Amino acid sequence: MSPELMNALGKAGGVAAIAFAAIGSALGTGAAGPAAIGAWKKCYAANKPAPFQLLVFIGAPLTQTIYGMILMITIAGKCAAPEGTPSWPGMLMAGVIGGMAMGISAWMQGKAGASGADALAETGQGFANYLMTLGVIETVALFVMVFIMALGLN
């Protein structure tokens, strides 16, 4: 296998990292968004103020795309390193599996955000608790990114 092909396969891992993370972010925001819209509608129908904080629930899954981008840049940097041919199977698998794990974290975060949006609009209470739940789910994606980067990918 040529060094160029090995390099390209390694970089494909970086592309997979951001792509799968972004797919998860889209699924997560797609889950939280309609729930927040429905929660706002309930508030308007009841003549209650609509909580602006529901935007936090919608946008929370977007951070996993940033983590995917950081992993992509790390993998691309390893492919451009002058010390030789990168270990393309490791980079490809790190990008694919890491991106999928971050994406699933974003998706589940959106689902939890949907529940938080509904609960906050109905009760007007508990925002900090709902936000902590999203933080715990976020931690999964952070762990995945940091632990993969700690491997060195060489």
> Which outline best applies?
elongated
- CATH-derived architecture: Up-down Bundle
Helix run count: 5
Through-space gap between termini: 18 Å
Task: Provide the β-strand percentage band.
Answer: under 5%
What's the number of structural domains? Answer: 1
From the 3D structure, determine the CATH topology.
Four Helix Bundle (Hemerythrin (Met), subunit A)
Point out poorly predicted stretches: none
DSSP summary, beta strand count: 0
Q: Mind describing the biggest β-sheet? A: none
Q: Tell me, what is the CATH class? A: Mainly Alpha
Global structural class:
mainly alpha
The CATH superfamily is identified as: lithium bound rotor ring of v- atpase
Average pLDDT, rounded to a whole number, is 93
Query: What is the H/E string?
Result: HHHHH
Please give the share of residues in helix: over 70%
